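Kindly review this protein for my students:
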Amino acid sequence: MASQSEGGGKDDIKTHFVTREGTYKLMPLSEYSKPTRVPYNGQTNTPSRVSFINVNDGSPSPDRICFNVGRELYFYVYKGVKKAADLTKPIDKRLYKGTFPTCHDFNRMIISSESVRLLVGFTAGQLQLIDPIKKELGKLYNEERLIDKTKVTCIKWIPGSTNQFIVSHSSGQMYIYNEELPCGPTPPHYQPFKQGDSFSVFTCKTKSTRNPLYRWMVGHGPINEFAFSPCSQYLAVVGQDGYLRVFNYNSMELVGSMKSYFGGLLCVCWSPDSKYIVVGGEDDLVTVWSFVEKRVVCRGQGHRSWIGVVAFDPYTSVFSEEESDSSDKKTGSSNHENVVNGSLQSNRNSLECQSTSSSSNITTYRFGSVGQDTMLCLWDITEDIIKQPYGRSRTSILVTPNASHTLPRCNSLPQSQKSNSVASDLTLDGNAHPVANHTSSLSTKFATLTLADRKESQERKEHKRNFSLASRSVDKNSILRSNHVKPVDDSIKLLGTLACPRLEEAPILEPLVCKRIASERLTELIFREECIVTACQEGLVYTWARPGWTCPQGYPNTMQHTVVSPQVGEVYQMQF
């Protein structure tokens, strides 16, 4: 990686950066990539994603890393900042023909040193369950593309489940699978199960249980990503229609939503205590949304292009003095599991969130973002920003405490732990929280008319890109037509409300750090205890050591990367 020091030009690729806790340094010997380097030709659009799993085998390096590059999938021992990566010894390597891996996720309920379960989604819509250690397990779902023909955009094991997982497609649909059940030999026929504002849930019309267990139709346009809350009760979904929608997963109820300022939302992440959600997308902004208060807290401005990944850093979040310095601070992971969880309470609503630990009191939240501009940005959300009232127009990007408007009272949820239902007036009609109009007609036109233009363009692109969107038109009934959002109308209504404030109506944050760290667009960001892990479209996975971890024992500067010839290692070929 061609790079320059921190003191170079603004657009030089950096090898270190400084924050309030110290200096983060790139560890060049801890770089993971394809064993044989070939020049990046930009032919594939599929992002390189990274998944981690700890096998608890008692070794000095119990972590395993999985990442995809083009048509290939790699599985290595991850040695972190302690030792140099050995690219000659992949535990597993697979090459796929006819399709590209797009995303993957480990089952964290069934783990051993001899076996792990990995789900993989593909561009043609198929799903695969593999064991990269045993290499015996190999199940295919949607193999004939009878369930959905479009690209898999996100795949996750359902928290707490050993056999159920959820997958989203660019068709705008999500499916719930049981890995033990088969997929039928014919296209499934669905019947309505539940409906709500902007979403519908269906089940299969069959005498015997089969996959998919449920089919969710959410919003209008592709679903780009979803994420479960750390307390496992809520599911946040972002899509190309620009909406964040939050569901109570068990009751299948919509409990909150927000709208991007412009364009689609591409990524989503929960805070460690389940109180806040950060999203990023095509408006080049990161937006912080309060799950408790159902309002946009602030927006972050620092990227120059679309934002592809957002992630919270539980290891540098600041806790109140009464919070202990115990292992609670060191239990985070890239998927936000086993981090400090808390009950979501305020003077306005009470959201009961079952937690495996005592409630937390985080006073400063750290999160990061990466995007197509090759920039890494780090952000801090402090108490003064969180408590900033929804107020009048601002002309400065600095957060000021003098806004005179008070926050309108939000709709509250039932406080009983026994009830998962939501208030009937939680809708997307945009009329719940009217506010004064502070925006000129020019900015209003920019935020609304451009949305319509982009939506039409996106529909044309999706029609050309995908083999078929027939799965969206299977059920041509009034339920589907009546429950899909009309993005243009709702965008006009929501602009200037708590769900989509105008630019001057919400605080604008500046990043603590905003550095160019790669030559290709960034596609992954994971916070670990000892380091930050990033990946780029070229398939390079970088390790950035946190302050105090930069000179580990057994990491001599004279060591060099070793590479493997194409004949070394097993290659799994699969024709889809």
Q: What stands out?
A: The chain has a mean pLDDT of 77. The first strand starts at residue 16 and ends at 19.
